[in-house]
Amino acid sequence: MGRGFQGAILRGLGARDHVATVVGTAPIAPNCVRITMSAPTLFEDLLHTPAEWLRFWFPDPDGGTSEHQRAYTIVATDEDAGEFSIDVVIHEPAGPPASGRWPHDRE
């Protein structure tokens, strides 16, 4: 899948991919959900500090070869468990990542 110029720059800077699996969701407001994910290798590269953020790449919901990037601030971490949480605002119209299956759809 293609990440374009941003992906090439990040790869050149030594950034590596981490797989994050949704392990839980919790509504925190009418249009906001907290998503907890497990990514055991993430904390090998990340020293969590206030306002730390992650760049997520989502596949094209139409099945194309490009990927769509979104950045989210980490709101909670459990380094021993290899887990972190982000807050996501649910809005309309949905952007490209939310047009397909999205983590907050998980129960």
UniProtKB/TrEMBL annotation:
Domain FAD-binding FR-type: from-to ranges: 15-107
Highest rank taxon of the organism: Bacteria
InterPro entries found in the cross-reference section: FAD-bd_FR_type, Riboflavin_synthase-like_b-brl, SIP_FAD-bd
GO function term, MF aspect, one: oxidoreductase activity
Gene3D superfamilies associated with the record: Translation factors
Alphabetical list of PROSITE patterns matching this protein: FAD_FR
The protein's name in its UniProt record: Siderophore-interacting FAD-binding domain protein
Annotated organism of origin: Mycobacteroides abscessus subsp. bolletii 1513
Organism phylogeny: Bacteria, Bacillati, Actinomycetota, Actinomycetes, Mycobacteriales
